[in-house]
Amino acid sequence: MQQAPxxxxxxxxxxxxxxxxxxxxxxxxxxxxxxxxxxxxxxxxKHGVSDLEAMTDLSKALRERLAAETLIDLPRVALEQxxxxxxxxxxxxxxxxxxxxxxxxxxxxRSTLCVSSQVGCALxxxxxxxxxxxxxxxxxxxxxxxxxxxxTRALGKPPTNIVMMGxxxxxxxxxxxxxxxAIMQDDFAYxxxxxxxxxxxxxxxxxxxxxxxxxxxxxxxxxxAPDNALRDQLxxxxxxxxxxxxxxxxxxxxxxxPRRRVTWEYVMLKExxxxxxxxxALIRLLEGTPSKVNLIPFNPFPGSxxxxxxxxxIEAFRQRLKRSGLVATTRKTRGDExxxxxxxxxxxxxxxRQPRAEARLPVTLGR
Length: 367
Ligand code: SAH
Prior knowledge:
This protein is an alpha/beta fold and 367 residues long. It has helices spanning 20-29, 34-45, 60-69, 129-132, 141-155, 174-185, 205-214, 228-234, 243-254, 276-286, 311-323, 349-353, and strands at residues 13-14, 70-71, 76-82, 88-93, 99-106, 111-114, 118-120, 135-138, 161-164, 197-201, 218-222, 262-268, 291-297, 327-330.
């Protein structure tokens, strides 16, 4: 009789997938006191230690049990790319050979880490390089937090701000992302205030409501167009969750937080969404919603079919929003020399050499 091939699944528990309560519950289930779990969690995240032997205040019995039944699976750096402006992009290798990118952006008084939530993305926004590689899989909590773990080691301290604005749609990987954001905020881990963790979504409406119930992180929404006709084209998820559903969901997210606003991301695409008419429509759309508009000059990539609006046009658009009373800023493009700017993350090195340019046609809507 032929032998079935031997497959030994790894049943060890990935420790980085667990939030503090999860680590405490695990060690408690083995009969150890909760504070042992808390110490372990602190070793992992606050001290960035991945060697159980170095966790000196854990009992030998606990360390042996951990060594036998758990694993600490950190993403490995495949490539580290520093940019002249101080931005660093890391390409990480995951255990199954998939790859994701993370970007560290230093500023005068803070440092922002741009974290990925999925390998690729299923949402197919027309102006985004990540969309071109399609969707491979969700990241686990450990793979999301692993990016923060690594940046914290590299920086010598945790980033002051984290934005879920790397590869993927965070609200399409809800549970893993929410747990990762809880670890980012934990005092025994990375200690970020809730307002310094920002989740950016293309607008998965039901999950905006779910998020409001269990988390209070800052919300950014990729708007990019002031009406359904154009947004249907640029951000296709709009066909499922159009503006008349998206705007109320975002308003609801702010309920009970009188001082907070939604950040609306608006990529400036030459002769597509950047006219005075679009600005006027945007002002009307956002009336009554506490808002901040962040204009993002389009970051080109090979074969995108789009052009960036002229700086004068962007400034005129911004001034128009400001005159109506909206808070409006223009995002400084960082890391573009190393393809680390918004929408340029593709993860796979080979994709960058062979962009699937021919596969797409540019949007041809007039003004
Ligand atoms: N999926 C989430 C997270 C991505 S965040 C979301 O859609 O919000 C990255 C931000 O950069 C989004 O606002 C995205 O729409 C924007 N973006 C994508 N491609 C871009 C490009 N080429 N130039 C500028 N901004 C881009």
